[in-house]
Amino acid sequence: MATPDRTPARPTPEPRPMTLQPASSSSRPVSRRDFLRRVGQGSAAFAVTTMVPTDFLQMPKIFTQEDFTWKHFVEMTDAEKQQRVQELEELYRKRFNDDRISIATTPAKEGVLWGYALNIGKCVGCRRCVKACVGENNQSRDPEIEWIRVLELEKGTMDLDESHHYYNPKEVPDEEHYYMPVQCQQCENPPCVKVCPTTATWQEKDGIVVVDYNWCIGCRFCLAACPYFARRFNWGEPTWNGNLNPHMHYLGNRPRFKGVMEKCTFCIQRSREGHYTACVEACPVGARKFGNLLDPQSEIRQLIAAKRVFRLKEEAGTHPKFFYFTD
Amino acid sequence: MGKRIRSLAGIVAAAGLAVGIAAPPATATVEMGEATHQGCVFCHPQDIRIAGPAGLYYKENGSLDGYEGMEVPAKLTAEDCLGCHDESWETNPKQRKLEDPHADKAELKHGDGAFWCLRCHAPGHRNKLELMNGEELDWRDSPRLCGQCHGPVYRDWKAHLHGRWSGELANATPARLCPDCHNPHDPKFKPLPPEPAPQEPVAAPVAADLTFVAVGGAIVALLLTAFAAFGRRD
Hints:
The structure holds two protein chains of two kinds. Chain A is of the alpha+beta class. Chain A is about 25% helix and about 15% strand. Chain A has eight helices and twelve strands. In chain A, the strands form five sheets. In chain A, strands 10-2-12-11 form a four-stranded mixed beta sheet. In chain A, strands 1-8 form a two-stranded parallel ribbon. Chain A is globular, with a radius of gyration of 26 Å. Chain B is mostly helical. Helices cover about 25% and strands about 5% of the residues of chain B. At the A-B interface, helix 3, strand 10 and helix 8 of A face strand 3 and helix 6 of B.
């Protein structure tokens, strides 16, 4: 289709030399392209001269240059995983001065789909689970990151908008409140995975939604997509006060760095070795239950069969594998 | 045969001072779920301290008030109620106000007054518990005793749905038995102090916002000027 050319007739410009060299001829005025090219070169030079010495040479390194060239965890072969883990172990042992540090890449077992249940009738809101989780999973102490958030609700309502999580009475449980801890619900239909532009987060075969911290670009789409406020972002450089759990998993509790997302992994480093999660072990009232949803004899299956069970924000269609129940 | 405690008072007190520092304090009902092995100590924290393998029986404040005239057994430990309640003592099943050293259990807050000590403790063997059918139980089998009345809870506990279970999923072990969390003489859970609340997010200072606006505005203005100066030449 011919569209009328409404621009006034201009003299045809001289053909430019097809070269990448900047037009240095003084006879021609500086073109927009040349200007932008110079600006680009100048900024690159500026970035190199200022950022390299501060960010890459002087700061304590937690990720290496290889971090930018390694494959996505899912695409790695076993040998590559092995090599990658060895490199990381050396790096972490040096940095954290702890020879016990080991990083597992234990895969999901066949016939296992993890499920979790929490008895809101028993929970007393003591936050023992929160602190156990922080210790087990190496969350940053300052800035503070906690994967579990215990909501305090007034008796008589289930409106989460009315809940508080900064409650701090001398003793719990408070007579007028009940408590509902919320953490990653390990959805079967996880919105956080759908929105990730780099596939840095995905669902494993045993149902755990994990993050490859080296592939996360920190866009925080997943944080916005999660209806459960279950994801946490490292806004600052994390610190651990020397309390680092040396038993790590590549997709779980290995140290994160500034600018990446993290979340509950059902203690992937424990559950894949057949152990209860840290929050289950820590709960003083035994309100937390964990097990294999595909095993009819497991406690989680018996619990779903025997108790009054519900899921949080069921209407969102996320199909959580995290159940709340009462006796 | 034992000796009179009065004659041993000095030795016992000295030994208590000597080993008392090293001895682990009786951690009983301070926080639910934090109790150690269930023995007499669990219910008798005020009365007993374990001190050394041979055992030592004295009050929390180190005095021997109330124990005058008692036979001191050769080997009395916190798990050995028979040290005092042996065959020589006549069993008194009558409900009454308890004297020292059991004064802390003067009021039994379990069963609304329907129970007395010997409903659970075996009258014939005080180191054991006793079911309603007369079968004597070890301390470690206490869930069976509790399950006589608390049937649904016992059923849930056996299916790992009640209480704390620990270790490997495939071979879970009870982290706690009934009396470790529910003091049988006062079963109601006591409130406990919560762990610290999460930090509330702090709003950035206004100065930071202003700086952002000023610097950002300057950059935008600079770019606009540059484009105006160079952009329309061709």
